[in-house]
């Protein structure tokens, strides 16, 4: 097999994967899902119909996640949940990855960080992450009470792993929730997510 042919095959595979993982469109219904939390309890999106919901993809081994868990993510979570917003943190890291944490370990890590998420969900097979087109940790989504996806993208406007860059950054999730809870449309509904690539289980 020639190098050119191999390159063409790989490119086709990448395009196919990209198409298969196409993110849902903001303004359309958020994909339904069901997953177990770190305590083994089932959680499904439909449980929270009528509420605003935030989805956050997490990997404790990622420096971008650690940047925001220096206090920024917890403060954003608390600001949301104090106002009745449901916050679901999701791990789509495959069990074979060195970054994988078992449910009890991930739950303990969240507790050690004083996280304010409503629930932390295990997505070992990556079905939830793929349904949303989640690619990085963190990757953030906001769903309105009607079940419509109204925000998708980054936690904030400074795509670095430096804690010092949090100050002065626009927190897109907080901004979106502030606007929604005030009865306004989300002014910045889509941004480019940044962080570590999610280590998905091989779909093949």
UniProtKB/TrEMBL annotation:
GO terms for molecular function: antioxidant activity; oxidoreductase activity. Residues 24-182 form the Thioredoxin domain. It holds the Pfam family AhpC-TSA. Keywords: Signal. InterPro entries: AhpC/TSA, PRX-like1, Thioredoxin-like_sf, Thioredoxin_domain. The keyword Signal applies. Residues 1-22 form the signal peptide. The keyword Signal applies. CDD domains: PRX_like1 (cd02969). Transmembrane segments: none annotated. Coiled coil: none annotated. This is Thioredoxin family protein. It comes from Caldimonas caldifontis. The lineage of its organism: Bacteria, Pseudomonadati, Pseudomonadota, Betaproteobacteria, Burkholderiales.
């Amino acid at each position: 097999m020639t190098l050119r042919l191999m390159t063409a095959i790989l490119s086709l595979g990448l395009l196919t994967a990209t198409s298969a993982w196409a993110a849902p469109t903001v303004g359309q219904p958020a994909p339904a899902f069901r997953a177990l939390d770190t305590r083994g309890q089932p959680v499904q999106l439909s449980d929270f119909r009528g509420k605003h919901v935030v989805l956050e993809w997490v990997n404790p081994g990622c420096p971008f996640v650690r940047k925001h868990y220096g206090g920024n993510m917890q403060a954003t979570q608390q600001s949301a949940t104090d106002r009745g917003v449901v916050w679901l943190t999701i791990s789509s890291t495959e069990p074979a990855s060195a970054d994988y944490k078992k449910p009890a370990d991930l739950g303990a890590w969240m507790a050690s960080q004083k996280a304010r998420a409503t629930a932390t969900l295990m997505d070992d097979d990556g079905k939830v992450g793929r349904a949303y087109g989640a690619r990085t940790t963190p990757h953030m989504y906001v769903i309105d009470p009607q079940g419509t996806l109204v925000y998708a993208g980054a936690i904030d406007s400074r795509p670095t792993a430096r804690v010092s860059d949090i100050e002065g950054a626009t927190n897109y999730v907080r901004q979106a929730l502030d606007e929604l809870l005030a009865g306004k449309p989300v002014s910045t509904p889509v941004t480019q997510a940044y962080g570590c690539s999610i280590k998905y289980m091989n779909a093949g």
